[in-house]
Amino acid sequence: MRLPRFPPTRGCALVALGAVLLAALSACTSDGPPPSDSTQGPAPARPLAYAPGTGPSPELPAPEGSLIPTVRIAPAIGWPDDGMPVPADGFSVTPFARGLDHPRTLYVLPNGDVLVAETNAPPKPDGAKGIKGAVMKSVMKKAGAAVPSADRITLLRDEDGDGVAETRTVFLENLMSPFGMALVGDTFFVANADAVVKFPYSTGQTRIDAAPEKVADLPGGPINHHWTKAMVASRDGKRLYVGVGSNSNVAERGMAVEAMRAAILEVDPATGSTRVFASGLRNPTAMDWHPRTGALWTVVNERDELGNDLVPDYLTSVRDGAFYGWPWSYFGQHVDTRVEPRNPAMVAKAVAPDYALGAHVAPLGLAFYTGSLLPARYREGAFIGLHGSWNRDPLSGYSVAFVPFSNGIPSGPMEDVLGSFVNEEGQARGRPVGVAIDARGGVLVADDVGNAVWRLAPAALPKPR
């Protein structure tokens, strides 16, 4: 079956309703054969067709300003007891775990255990002042993003390999809005909202009671406009890379509050020393290493209030010392005239991202496929969790997408592989966040409104008659 697209709608109230299909099945499987394997025979050559605002060279419209920014929310209601998202043709989806508390990020340990950060924003004493702050607080509440943070990491274990976790334990608790996770040898690192901390770990351990040891401070409150701190370890374990979002939309609070923000930081875990690895990345929310090239890639949430179709969020490789535009320009050297004073020297340095994902789709998860369960065409491609828009009419995102790669770079249009997170009344039953590849090659998806982790796998072939 083909996943639904959000149709155009009329008008814009503060909150309006959209339309997508919802499938509510206890175990949801698409019709048709497993996903096609492009290695099984030649296909006729044809031009690649990218959706507007996506791909390596998107056509960007002129910016649109308005006195009152567009606000359109899919109110969060959660899934019914038997409800599930709908997979694309050839895939099946099952609930790996339900009944979680705002699960955001996933990390798979070497023994196959799956860690889930149940987390949300920390208190922001200076982040919700004024009319705009009050409106944003209301928007986040309606979108299901205002629940208190559980501040814990939960361990899930699928002991019999059936795609459902039978064991669930509290792995770590009393954290500070944890987000990024990384294991290096026998040391487990957590990126809290304000610091990287570490704990001792032994293989198979289901709970850590040791006190955290601080590795390095991270930019935190009192504003903490973007609080999430994504994290990956280098392949040799000698460095940690932490994504830190901006403290504003487009530096309207001044650049002084943006120190060490809108950047990926490099942390030496042995000494705690920290430097800016790459900058101008408004909100780098997830990272992964490409399995073929070893390059670092990230997904970035771009700026708002320039219209429905600006600015595209994106997927990009990240180079040491590179600058990616924020706040002075976007998608390369498109100048944002709202930012004063202008900085033409920095605009001239701005690197264009590799691949546009679409405006306001809110990518929050990234995982390159390294398994063998899915057909070969998926290997080394990127699975991306699109959390979904709150400021676009019609809605965008609210799906898990796949971007094919060839020789270490994106090689085709984005494909939706899991959708129907929004029902026919425009309500969000779920919102995808972090993604990870499990030990058996399934794709795990955290759903922070549905309070679940879904597992995407090939559909079973029909039995011969």
UniProtKB/TrEMBL annotation:
Residues 29-63 are annotated as: Disordered. Residues 1-29 form the signal peptide. Keywords: Signal. PROSITE patterns: PROKAR_LIPOPROTEIN. Residues 158-307, 349-454 form the Pyrroloquinoline quinone-dependent pyranose dehydrogenase beta-propeller domain. InterPro entries: 6-blade_b-propeller_TolB-like (IPR011042), Beta-prop_PDH (IPR054539), Quinoprot_gluc/sorb_DH_b-prop (IPR011041). PANTHER family: LARGE, MULTIFUNCTIONAL SECRETED PROTEIN, LARGE, MULTIFUNCTIONAL SECRETED PROTEIN-RELATED. This is Sorbosone dehydrogenase family protein.
